[in-house]
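Do me a favour: review this protein, sequence plus structure tokens, and tell me how the chain folds. Record follows.
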Amino acid sequence: MNQELNVPIQRPFVLSGGGARGYAHIGVLKAFAEHNIFPEAIAATSAGSIAAAFICDGYTTDEVREIFLHTKMGLTVDWKNLKNGFLSLKLLEKVLTQTLRHTTFESLPIPLYVTATNFSTGQQTIFNKGSLIPAILAASSIPMLFPPVIIEGIPYVDGGISGNLPVEPLLGKYTSIIGVHVNPLTPYNPASGLRANIERTLHMAIHEPVLKNQLLCSRFIEPQELGRFGMFDFKRFDAIYTVGLEYTRRILQESPEPLEV
């Protein structure tokens, strides 16, 4: 069976973190959908887990794009909790609560695996059972910026720290894994400011595990042009989305996904 018969092709996807650059995931998945390729399951962390939650909840990429375009999902300052982190994910939590139609992993139409980092041990934790929203918030809580999210007495922080391309939940269960990484390491620029250098330091700290997990993917999508956007460029959704969409369209045009299902 193939695309000519209009039979959907299912592939497991891995979606990385990347802050605002996570918007590109929607563009990437849109390009695959145009080729009749849809997620069979998704493993994701940080910003990737936000995009993945909507897709696994049954939303189309066009519907997710509308939600992101017309909903405030930025950051707020939490003056009451400065010792653990001065930013809050309350806006994100509100949007997820109001928009997601399924509240548990088990009830999702598409299997989802969300990874966060145990802040006590530093180890990767895989969430695929129980409440959905706390796991997404935990996976997105960058240390020093956001307070850890406590789940069953354990503090969790951003999953990118323990693995920003979390292919682990899919290994042994799925084949032909498609990895999508939206945090490209850009060339060093000595003229960069403090903020850019802080971001670069964070990228370098988590980069090597990404390279190793990249080798476990049958296809790896990493739009280098995303390097011109910052982690907190939340107002540049359309530009970030378009980079992911157009890059993946070119890749699939040059090297189509195998037609077998």
